[in-house]
Amino acid sequence: MMGEIERHALASHPEECCGVLLGPIPPDFDRQGRSVEAQEHRPLANAWESGGRGTRYQIDPALILKIEKEFRGTGRGIVGWYHSHPDLPAWPSPFDLSRAWPCYSYMILSVFKDELRATRSWIRSEGGNDFVPEALEIL
Amino acid sequence: MISCPKRWRSYEEEEKNMSVQVYLPTALRSYAEKRETVELDGKTVGEILSALTGRYVGLKEHLFSPEGRLRHFVNVYVNDEDIRHLQGVGTAVKPGDSVLIVPSIAGGSTALAEGAALSPEELRRYNRHIIMPEVGLEGQKRLKAARVLTVGAGGLGSPLSLYLAAAGVGTIGVVDFDVVDFSNLQRQVLFSTGSVGKPKLQEAKARLSGLNPDIRIETYETRLTSQNALELFKQYDVIADGTDNFPTRYLVNDACVLSGKPNVYGSIFRFEGQVSVFKAPEGPCYRCLYPEPPPPGLVPSCAEGGVFGVLPGVIGSLQAVEVIKWILGLGDPLVGRLMLFDALKMQWRQLKLRKDPNCPLCGNNPSIRALIDYEAFCGVRSAVGASNGSPLPEISVEQLKARMDRKEEFYLLDVREPFEYEIGRIPGSHLIPLGQLPERLGELDPQSDIVVHCKMGGRSAKAAKLLLEKGFKRVTNVAGGINAWSERVDPSVPKY
Question: Distance between the two ends of chain B, CA-based, in angstroms?
């Protein structure tokens, strides 16, 4: 799965790529230090207006609605999101923070042309003022 | 098994049919007892949402702005139709309808904040930035949206904050608790002669706001401590370290690592300076470079060792360069590199810094997970401790004066440099500079009562410790040194 996400990020350069991470919703989803197992991913189109996709991504809410409905009542669902930062480090920007939701894992891939430099995962801090890094274990 | 009376069951079913089903996204279920759906009554979407946040108060901040408006990154659908295409929160709902809350997911690599538009005056002010494609309008807005904290309004903090203000960094926080002294003016270009005796922050705010009235200056007239650092740092995007002492430098480093903020570091000593950007976990931190602080007293402060006045101008300006590059995402940040500047040789050297896998803070198995007592870590408190661990005897300048007035017999030892002795001295003192003390111990009587002083009390503490280690029995340090003497006993002795 990681290989596919990385290929998605590389293929989208110099634009940002984005996608959803799916898995069982842990009972302690809102706790920092919780463990989230993303078992599946789906690449999604970057719906930000063209011309701005080098530094921005957006996911069509209609797609999110569809996914939420698909997983309704299963105990599984959206555990996080991934997106790439072309030619910039894999740590979140203030813009990422301004749009961050609680609980989700936000995985960021730093991609320089043909090279994946770093992949990091983050969770919004409890107060919402910051991102806290999460350990990323590739199974 | 007890069955429900028929009438009751039908009432219950009716109740269920009367309600509107609200579906919550995974991110918000924790705030609603982990529920995926909630049944609520109401005639409009607005009524349903207020019933929802009334029942689950924790949801409110995620759905509504403090002014009570639905946040723009919250999408609400009624039966798969976006309410923006209907009547917004006024959209009517009827029993059996579904209301779906769907997060709007967006982000990106840059910091453009909505609403950071530039006025015509700002467009004129920042014209030379905006016409460079590397900055442009987008970059200038990013600077406006950025928040930078400078720790210290001294030699480094002066050029640093002036250039950040001039560049249009929208919010600059400054931490300091000092008062402007005449001896600051040789390098602290934030201040003027009229500032002497006034609080640094008050003067800094006036100067920076005068330079750029379109930005916000947040002042914190306090000592940065393990108790307040994390709370303060989390409000900023970048931290710039302009401190002049080791406990605060380690505190800034540790708080930056623990809060994930970049630490734009600068330090100066006499004619030499250093600059780097510490950013863990991606790069090394200050502890990877200096795992242990130097022994107390080994590295004199600017007040004790002096500093070439223009040097902080060079180093602090480079810190501003790195802060602005960082905000704009431009070029190569100084992460993993340490620049060393020698003003006398006019030479720059660049050292490659590696992340220490054994770093107790940012290494593979960190042992430091919270802020510690930095004064103790740097041995500042034990700086006045004797070799056997017991506290070093100390007297105040007033006590020294009283002993002199009582004509007590003791040997007053001044361990400053000869040029300092020329500036001013305490009557009856004998000069042996600290560096010469080990070879000149023979000039002192081990049985006599020795009182040691220097300019501020640091070097004399070191001298006193050395004397005790060499077997001298009665040694006392003068707290605050000759500067305290000048302030509190005899103003005719020049303070420098």
Answer: 93
What is the band of B391 on the pLDDT scale with cuts at 50, 70, 90? Answer: confident
Selecting from B27, B77, B106 the residue whose C-beta is nearest the C-beta of A57 gives: B106
Sign for the CA dihedral angle at B119, B240, B187, B331 comes to: negative
User: Do B105 and A58 count as a contact with CB atoms less than 8 A apart?
Assistant: yes
Q: Which two tokens stand for residue B419?
A: 């040029």
- Structure-block tokens of residue B343: 């003003």
The pLDDT score that the predictor gives to residue B419 is 87
CB interface of A with B, residues 65-124, below 8 Å: 65, 68-69, 72-73, 77-79, 81, 83, 85-86, 88-96, 98-104, 106, 118
Per-residue pLDDT band at B111 (split at 50, 70, 90): very low
A112, two tokens: 């320089």
CB atoms B108 and A96 under 8 Å: yes
Q: Tell me which residue has tokens 């402007």.
A: B180
Exposure letters B52-72 (e unless 16+ CB within 10 A, then b)? bbeebeebbebbbeeeeebee
**φ, ψ (nearest 5 deg) of residue A44:** -125, 155
Could you give the CA distance from residue B414 to residue B397 in angstroms, rounded to a whole number? 14
Are B112 and A104 in contact (CB < 8 Å)? no
pLDDT at site A10: 95
Q: Which helix (H) or strand (E) holds A28?
A: none
pLDDT (0 to 100) of residue B275: 97
How far is residue B375 CA from its own chain's centroid?
16
Task: Tell me the shortest Cα–Cα distance from A19 to chain B, in angstroms.
Answer: 10
Phi and psi angles of residue B431, each rounded to the nearest 5 degrees, phi first = -95, 120
Q: Which residues of chain A have pLDDT under 50?
A: none
Q: What is the pLDDT of residue B297?
A: 66
Question: How many residue pairs bridge chain A and chain B with CB atoms within 8 Å of each other?
Answer: 131
Give me the half-sphere count of Cα atoms (radius 13 Å) on the Cβ side of residue B314: 22
Q: What percentage of chain B has pLDDT greater than the value 90?
A: 65
Order the strands of the B263-269 sheet from edge to edge: B216-220, B171-175, B147-151, B238-241, B263-269, B272-278, B337-342, B347-352
Choice among A74-78, B111-115, B158-162 with the minimum mean pLDDT:
B111-115
Hey, which residues does B276 pair with through a beta bridge? B265, B338
Q: Give pLDDT tens digits for B422-476.
A: 889 999 999 999 989 988 988 898 888 999 999 998 889 989 988 988 888 899 9
Q: Which of A131, A112, A109 is nearest to A122 (CA)?
A: A131
- CB under 8 A, 24+ apart: contacts of B288-291: B288/B353, B288/B354, B288/B355, B288/B356, B288/B359, B288/B362, B288/B363, B289/B338, B289/B353, B291/B356, B291/B359, B291/B360
ipTM score for this prediction: 0.89
Query: Given pLDDT bands bounded at 50, 70 and 90, which one contains residue B18?
Result: low
**Cβ pair B109:A16 closer than 8 A:** yes
Is B39:B52 a contact under the CB 8 Å cutoff? no
CB contacts, 8 Å: A58 with chain B: 104-106
User: Count of alpha carbons within 13 Å of B225, Cβ hemisphere only?
Assistant: 6
CA distance readout (Å), B129 to A95, B170, B209, B222, B332: 22, 15, 20, 34, 19
Rounded Cα distance between B352 and B341, Å, is 15
